[in-house]
Amino acid sequence: MYSNEHTLQDLLQQAFRRLDMDDTVTEIEVRRMYNAMVGDLISRLTWKVSFKDGVLTAQMASAALRQELFYRRNSLAEKINDNLGRNAVKEIRFV
Asked: Could you say which of 5, 19, 23, 48 is the most buried, measured as most Cβ atoms within 10 Å of its Cβ?
């Protein structure tokens, strides 16, 4: 028996694929996940977060904070990818 039932998430993903908006949606999700993973304080100290071609770039003024996050970048990328359910973040750069 054929079922014509779909979840809203499935329908939205299909629409985004048809409109070629997958990259935009992924960027928004990755940026949201970064802010959630690093917490409010680090999120407020981060000027700009961008994501393109698998590279997450976060700009911040504090050299000490950049250094600390540099050491945690691999575990942060793993956590973001686990929460997204796909391997979107291949590299994280702190500038």
From this structure: 23
Angle among Cα 27, 30, 35 to the nearest 5 degrees reads: 125
Using a cut of 0.90, tell me whether the model's pTM lies above it. no
Q: How does pLDDT run across 43-71, given as a tens digit for each residue?
A: 999 999 999 999 999 999 899 999 999 99
Closest CA to 52 of 21, 87, 94, 89: 89
Q: Which amino acid is at 8?
A: L
CATH class of 22-94: alpha beta
Name the residue ranges covered by the structural domains of the chain.
Answer: 22-94
Taking phi over 0 as left and psi of -120 to 50 as alpha, with beta for the rest, 39 belongs to left
